[in-house]
Design goal:
The complex is a heterodimer. By secondary structure, chain A is an all-alpha fold. Chain A contains 9 helices and no strands. In chain A, 40% of the residues are buried. Chain B is α+β, with helices and mostly antiparallel strands. Chain B has 2 domains: 143 residues, Up-down Bundle (Four Helix Bundle (Hemerythrin (Met), subunit A)); 98 residues, Nonspecific Lipid-transfer Protein, Chain A, CATH 3.30.1050. Classes of the chains: A mainly alpha, B alpha+beta.
C-alpha cells in the first residue's frame, strides 16, 4: 500500500516512510561514513530518489526498510570510494598535505566503521604495498618522504601506492556492501 | 537497550530538509510514472472506440440481454445515441437541453431501437458519436461553457464526463454479455479521476455534508493521483479525512457501480465523515 501511495504522489505517505525508516537509514549511513553531514546527505539522496522514482522499489523483492538501507549503504560506500579516489589523485599529483588543519574527509572516513574495513583490507596487502599505505596515509608522509623512508625510488613508491589503493577500493566494496 | 534506542537521534531540521527536497524534485499529487496528457476530445474518442469495438464483438443474442434500468443492451446503446443527440443540440445552442433529464430525454432514442438490427443500432450510435467529435472540433475551445442535462460546465469537462459514461456503459454491457470488465488507459483514467476529485465538493454539498472537512484523496494505480479537497463549509480547523482507494475502483464508485463497502479502502480520520464523503461521491453518476 505504501508503495502505491508513493507512486500516487501521496506526500503523507512520504512523511510516514521518513518517520518510520529515516532513523535506520541515517544510523546505517553514519556507521559507514562516521561523518554526520555526509550521513545526512545520504539520507536526503535516498529519500529524494524514493520519492522521484517510487517504481524502482519492488515490494515483491523485499521490504521497504531493506531497500532503503541497501540504498543508503551503496551511497555511503560510493562516498568512501570517491574519497579513496580523491586521495589517490592527490597522491599521484604529489599534493598530499598532512599539515592541513582539521580532519579531512578521508580522516573522517577513517574514524568510521569503514576504517575497520580499510584496516583489515590493508592487512591483506602485500608487505611492500602495505608499507606504502602506512607511510603515506597512516603516518601522513608525502610520497617523496614515504619513498625515502622505505628506501625506494619515488616512482616505485607511487606505483605501489596506486596498486594498493586500487585493491583497497575493491576490497572495501566487497566488505562494506557484503556486510549489509 | 533496543536497536532503536541505540540509534542516534535524527539531526534537527533533517526531516524538513529531506521532505522539502523531495517535493522540489517531484510535486505532491503527481503520479509516477505520469500518464501521458491527452485532450478531453481524445479521451472521448478513445472511449468511443473501445465501446464500438466491444459492440462489434457481441453475439446477436447478447443485444437482447438486460443491461440497465429495464433497458436491454440494444436499448442502452440507443440511450447513448440519445445522449449524443442532446449534446449536438447543446452545441447548436438549444437552451432547452440544459434542463433536460439525462434519462427521460434519451428514452425515445432507446425505445426506437426495438425491431432494428444490432448493426443498425451500433452504426447509428457511431455516427452520433462521430458527429459529437465533429461539432466539438468546430467549436475549437475546450473552455467554452456549455449546459446540458442539468450540468453547466466547460466543453472539455463535458467530454471527460462523456468518456466516463461511455466506459461505464461499456462495462454494463460487458457484464450483461458475460465479458470481463475493461479499464480505461491511464491517460483517459487520469482525466476521469481529476473530474471526480473536482466534483467531490459539489456532491458533498448536495448530500448535506456541512462540517468543514479536508479530504486527502489518494487514488492509486495508473491514472490516479493525490488531492487535498476542501468539502463542507469553510472553517478555521477542518477535520481531516484520508481516503486511499484504487483509481479504477473509485471511478466505479463515482459511477454508482460499486459500493464503498466493496472497495479496498484505507481510511484515516473520522470514519463517519469519510463514509459521508464516499456516499456523496457515489451520487455523481448520471446513469
Amino acid at each position: 500500500m505504501l508503495a502505491a501511495r508513493l507512486a500516487a504522489g501521496d506526500d503523507r505517505a512520504l512523511a510516514e516512510v521518513f518517520d518510520r525508516l529515516a532513523p535506520v537509514v541515517y544510523s546505517g549511513a553514519l556507521r559507514v561514513l562516521g561523518h554526520d553531514a555526509a550521513a545526512q546527505d545520504v539520507v536526503q539522496d535516498v529519500f529524494v530518489e524514493l520519492w522521484s522514482h517510487p517504481g524502482r522499489y519492488d515490494p515483491e523483492a523485499g521490504s521497504l526498510r531493506t531497500y532503503l538501507t541497501m540504498q543508503a549503504r551503496h551511497r555511503a560506500v560510493d562516498l568512501v570510494r570517491s574519497e579513496m579516489r580523491r586521495a589517490a589523485r592527490q597522491e599521484r599529483n604529489g599534493r598530499l598535505d598532512p599539515g592541513q588543519p582539521g580532519p579531512s574527509a578521508y580522516e573522517q572516513v577513517m574514524a568510521s566503521e569503514a576504517a575497520a574495513a580499510v584496516r583489515a583490507a590493508v592487512e591483506k596487502l602485500p608487505e611492500s604495498q602495505r608499507r606504502m599505505i602506512e607511510l603515506a596515509y597512516f603516518k601522513g608522509l608525502t610520497c617523496r618522504e614515504a619513498a625515502k623512508a622505505a628506501g625506494i625510488p619515488e616512482g616505485t613508491a607511487k606505483s605501489r601506492l596506486r596498486l594498493a589503493l586500487a585493491k583497497l577500493e575493491t576490497v572495501l566494496d566487497r566488505q562494506l556492501l557484503g556486510s549489509s | 537497550m533496543t536497536a532503536a534506542e541505540r540509534r542516534p537521534a535524527l539531526p534537527d531540521g533533517l526531516r524538513d530538509r529531506v521532505l522539502a527536497a523531495s517535493l522540489l524534485a517531484r510535486a505532491a499529487g503527481r503520479t509516477e510514472p505520469a500518464a501521458a496528457q491527452i485532450t478531453p476530445a481524445e479521451a472521448f474518442s478513445r472511449a468511443a472506440d473501445a465501446l464500438y469495438g466491444m459492440l462489434g464483438a457481441l453475439q446477436e443474442e447478447d443485444w437482447g440481454r438486460p443491461a440497465l434500468r429495464g433497458l436491454d443492451v440494444q436499448g442502452l446503446v440507443g440511450h447513448l445515441t440519445g445522449v449524443e443527440e442532446d449534446v449536438h443540440r447543446c452545441l447548436a445552442g438549444d437552451p432547452q437541453v440544459a434542463r433536460a433529464s439525462h434519462v427521460e430525454s434519451t428514452q425515445a432514442a432507446a425505445d426506437r431501437q426495438a425491431g432494428r438490427s444490432p448493426v443498425q443500432t451500433r452504426a447509428e450510435w457511431r455516427r452520433a458519436a462521430d458527429r459529437t467529435l465533429d461539432l466539438v472540433d468546430a467549436v475549437g475551445d475546450a473552455d467554452a461553457a456549455v449546459a446540458v442535462h442539468d450540468m453547466r460546465l466547460s466543453l472539455g469537462m463535458l467530454l471527460v464526463i462523456r468518456a466516463f459514461e461511455l466506459w461505464i456503459h461499456e462495462n454494463d454491457i460487458r457484464q450483461a454479455a458475460g465479458l470481463p470488465p475493461s479499464v480505461p488507459d491511464p491517460s483517459t483514467l487520469s482525466l476521469m479521476t481529476q473530474a471526480a476529485a473536482q466534483f467531490l465538493p459539489h456532491a458533498a454539498a448536495r448530500e448535506g455534508l456541512r462540517e468543514p472537512t479536508s479530504v486527502h484523496l489518494v487514488l492509486t494505480g495508473p491514472g490516479g493521483g493525490t488531492w487535498d479537497i476542501p468539502v463542507g463549509h469553510s472553517g478555521p480547523a477542518p477535520a481531516s479525512v484520508g481516503i486511499v482507494a484504487d483509481a479504477v475502483e473509485f471511478c466505479r464508485l463515482v459511477a454508482n457501480r460499486a459500493a464503498p463497502g466493496g472497495l479496498d479502502l484505507h481510511i484515516t480520520g473520522d470514519p463517519d465523515r469519510a463514509a459521508m464523503v464516499l456516499a456523496a461521491a457515489s451520487t455523481l453518476a448520471l446513469d
